[in-house]
Each structure stands twice: as structure tokens, then as C-alpha cells.
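Postdoc handover notes: sequence design on the structure in folder B. Input C-alpha cells:
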């Protein structure tokens, strides 16, 4: 297992390009299994999650090949299995994205339920409700979803649940509806740019989808799709993470090949907290503040502040001059990073779906443990902004969604080293004065 060792206190400075979006790439890779012919995807990030989904597709009989320069070829001609087993699905929940495509292509899917998750309860009831509305018979047996349909029929599908809509659920229904007879209307659809990217890919393949990017999507079933070439959108969460890291270290950064309109609310929060931002067509520049200002925000579905940057913003605000109150409406239990940030000296209290962050003037490096993908990114940001050295264990969480983050940060002047995890610990803090030794009785 790898770990990061971070020497804090170095302001980031420089420019770099953003990778392709993980959360756009995964549903598109899954959708490619339902399409005739070989899809070519460009700007595919080198991530553990992409490798996991490639393995899953290969097990189904899909031919997946990585080309030089970040392209992926996906040819489902030899597909023979409809089973996504527990061992792969439990390591990556996005595996559930094969559900809709498998029912569309083979008329059946047997996909393991993903099980527990470090960011809270994550049911897939809305995915199943949507497929049932399109005429699939759906049941749960021995931990697997079994979905079958001789033919799918267009219908109205409502995707709102207690926590709002569902991103990957919208993706599953979008793909299945392309192969249904007649018209499907998805109400309360997710508006995330990653859903729009999937719809754009499907339309390139001959689908007739309109309204994507709004809560009501209309799909005219076409029965068959022909593979196309597609370039994945830039990763707005990676972009936000790097901008927040620059702000937290008081640095300056220019991000290229990014889509600023996908980041408007995040840029607004960064400005409110004291950063200077300049935006052009495909780039964003940030100059971090001398003093971070407190900001309140609510993480919610797009175009709100993404839950996927809640932890990173928490790390930034932990050094603000004053108190910030944040809420996560999408994943109300996504706060595993708080106790670790407190180990650096942050003063953060969780109350239900909220965190109350009392800014402290300094953080001091410590040994830390990553619990999930975005929590890991928050710990890296806090460690970069802290004094002295931190170690971050279980960095495999980070590798699921960030392409060579340590190399990108090092190129910007951050001191981040990847090492094989070792039990050696950091130097212990020295008490100000030595205490008298108590004699044992
Ligand atoms: N929900 C239900 N029922 C469902 C589906 C979801 O109640 O059938 C609830 C969830 O429990 C949650 C909320 O609805 O409270 C939103 O969940 P959603 O289904 O939208 O999440 P997801 O599709 O499983 C995607 C991203 C996540 C991101 C969320 C929210 C991918 C592969 N994953 O997950 O990304 O946090 O949308 O934006 O697209 C990450 O990249 O770190 C990550 C976790």
C-alpha cells in the first residue's frame, strides 16, 4: 500500500492542464457496451476506477484497449456475460452503471448490490424503480439485482428521492431508454455536466435525447446505436481540488483545458473566501488570499456546490479567520475527514448534516489516514497548508479519482512524495518544558 509524505508550508505556483472527468468517463464506458461497433474515447484519465471498470467490461466479454495519448477503444461485439460480480462492484460503486446498458443490450443483467460505503448510505432504489417503469422485471436475490426485459417500453420516470435526484441512476435510465420503444420522459433528472456528456456521446451514436442539462430529459427510443468517437469533458472536481489547494497555500495557479462554466459556484465560494479569480474561455487563474475569510455554503446537486468538493473546502476553511458553517444535502454523513483534520489542529464540530468550522491560525503536520476519495484530497490540501510534515496512509482511495496527483502538485512546487507505507512514524512533538518523572508505586 502506498502513502504520501507531505512537507507543508510551500505555496503552489505554476500552470497545468486538467485531466478527463472520471465521473463522465465511467458511465460512458458502461454505455459503450450497449452500442454496436467500437467506441473510441479520448481524454480518458489513468485512474484505478477506469482500470476497475475496464476489468469488469472485459469479464463481460467486451474488448477494452488503451491506446497511447489517453484514448480507450471499447468493442462489445464479443459480449457474452450479463454478470457483474461482487468482488469488482464492491471496490467501485460506479460499476452499477452497467445495469441499464446490460438490460438494453442483452435483455438481462445480474449486478451485485454494492454494499457499504464510507460516505454514507447509498441505495440504488431509484435506478431499479426507473428500470421497472420501462418494463423490466427487477428483483433482488442473494445480494444481486436481477433485471430482465424482452423489450423495454418508453415511460415517464421520476427520479427524485429523499436526497434529491441520482446522477448514475439518470445515466442508467438514459441508456436503457434509447433502446425502448417509444418516448421516455425522465423527470427530476440529474443536471450534472457528466450526465450531459453521456447524452452527448449517445447522441453522437444516433440517440435522440433532448433536454439534458435540465431536470426533464426526453428520449425517443431508436432501438440501435452505432459507435462513435467522443472526447470526455474536463474533470471539474479535479480542477476544484487544485484551485482549493492553491488557495489554501496562498499560491497562484493557472488551470488550462478546463470548463469554467462547470465551476461557477465553486469559483464564487473561492472568491468569497478571499481568492482572486480570472477566467477566460478554457482557463482559470487563481491567486490565493493573504488571509482566508470564512464562508457558509450548502453542498447540493448541480449547479450547487458539489458534495465532491465539500471535504476540500472544509480543509481550506479550517484556517479561515472566523467561523464557517457548511451543510451537505447530498451525502449527509460525508464527514469522515473531520476527525483527521482535527488531528492537524483544526477546530471542526459535526452536527447532523452540518459542520461548524472555527478557523485556526495554523495547522501542524501529523500522521493521517484517508477514508475515501475526496476525504483523501482534503487531507492532502490541509497537509500542504500545515506547518511541518504529514503522512497520509491508504492513499489508494485517492488513486481511484486523481491522476498522478503527487506529480501535478510537485510540478507546482508542492512537496509531496509517494512512498510504500511503512510503520515508521513522524517525530513526536516535544513538550515545551520537560515534566517531572512520576515514580511508580
Ligand atoms: N440515492 C437514493 N436512491 C438511489 C440513488 C441515490 O436515495 O437510487 C441518494 C444517495 O444515497 C445520495 C443521493 O441520492 O444521498 C445522490 O446519490 P447519487 O445517486 O446522485 O450518487 P451516485 O450517482 O452514486 C455520483 C458520483 C459521486 C457523487 C454523486 C453526487 C459517479 C460515478 N459518482 O454518485 O462521486 O458524489 O454522484 O454528485 O458519478 C466521487 O467522485 O467521489 C463520488 C462519490
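Designed sequence:
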Amino acid at each position: 500500500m502506498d502513502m504520501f509524505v507531505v512537507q507543508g508550508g510551500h505555496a503552489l505556483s505554476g500552470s497545468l492542464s486538467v485531466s478527463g472527468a472520471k465521473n463522465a468517463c465511467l458511465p460512458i464506458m458502461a454505455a459503450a457496451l450497449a452500442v454496436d461497433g467500437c467506441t473510441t474515447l479520448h481524454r480518458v484519465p489513468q485512474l484505478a476506477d477506469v482500470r476497475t471498470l475496464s476489468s469488469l467490461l472485459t469479464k463481460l466479454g467486451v474488448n477494452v484497449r488503451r491506446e497511447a495519448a489517453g484514448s480507450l477503444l471499447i468493442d462489445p461485439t464479443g459480449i457474452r456475460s450479463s454478470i457483474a460480480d461482487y468482488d469488482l462492484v464492491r471496490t467501485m460503486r460506479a460499476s452499477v452503471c452497467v445495469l441499464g446498458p446490460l438490460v438494453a443490450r442483452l435483455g438481462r443483467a445480474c449486478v451485485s448490490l454494492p454494499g457499504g460505503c464510507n460516505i454514507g448510505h447509498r441505495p440504488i432504489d431509484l435506478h431499479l424503480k426507473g428500470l421497472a417503469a420501462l418494463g423490466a422485471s427487477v428483483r433482488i436475490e442473494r445480494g444481486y439485482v436481477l433485471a430482465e426485459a424482452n423489450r423495454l417500453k418508453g415511460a415517464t420516470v421520476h427520479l427524485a428521492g429523499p436526497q434529491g435526484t441520482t446522477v448514475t441512476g439518470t445515466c442508467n435510465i438514459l441508456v436503457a431508454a434509447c433502446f425502448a420503444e417509444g418516448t421516455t420522459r425522465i423527470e427530476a433528472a440529474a443536471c450534472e455536466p457528466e450526465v450531459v456528456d453521456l447524452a452527448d456521446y449517445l447522441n453522437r451514436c444516433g440517440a435522440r435525447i433532448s433536454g439534458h442539462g435540465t431536470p426533464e430529459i426526453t428520449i425517443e427510443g431508436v432501438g440501435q446505436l452505432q459507435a462513435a468517437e467522443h472526447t470526455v469533458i474536463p474533470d471539474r472536481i479535479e480542477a476544484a481540488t487544485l484551485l482549493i489547494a492553491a488557495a489554501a497555500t496562498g499560491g497562484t495557479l493557472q488551470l488550462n483545458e478546463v470548463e469554467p462554466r462547470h465551476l461557477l459556484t465553486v469559483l464564487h465560494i473561492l472568491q468569497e473566501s478571499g481568492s482572486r479569480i480570472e477566467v477566460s474561455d478554457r482557463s482559470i487563474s487563481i491567486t490565493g488570499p493573504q488571509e482566508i475569510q470564512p464562508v457558509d455554503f450548502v453542498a447540493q446537486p448541480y449547479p450547487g456546490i458539489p458534495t465532491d468538493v465539500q471535504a476540500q473546502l472544509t480543509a481550506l476553511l479550517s484556517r479561515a479567520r472566523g467561523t464557517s458553517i457548511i451543510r451537505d444535502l447530498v451525502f449527509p454523513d460525508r464527514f469522515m475527514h473531520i476527525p483527521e483534520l482535527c488531528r492537524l489542529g483544526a477546530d471542526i464540530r459535526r452536527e447532523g448534516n452540518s459542520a461548524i468550522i472555527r478557523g485556526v491560525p495554523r495547522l501542524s503536520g501529523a500522521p493521517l489516514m484517508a477514508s475515501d476519495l475526496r476525504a483523501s484530497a482534503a487531507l492532502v490540501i490541509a497537509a500542504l497548508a500545515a506547518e511541518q510534515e504529514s503522512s497520509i496512509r491508504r492513499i489508494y482511495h485517492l488513486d481511484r479519482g486523481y491522476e498522478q496527483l503527487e506529480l501535478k502538485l510537485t510540478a507546482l512546487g508542492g512537496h509531496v512524495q509517494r512512498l510504500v507505507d511503512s510503520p515508521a512514524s513522524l517525530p513526536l512533538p516535544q513538550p515545551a518544558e520537560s515534566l517531572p518523572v512520576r515514580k511508580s508505586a
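Context for whoever picks this up: The mean pLDDT is 95. Don't rerun without checking with the PI first.
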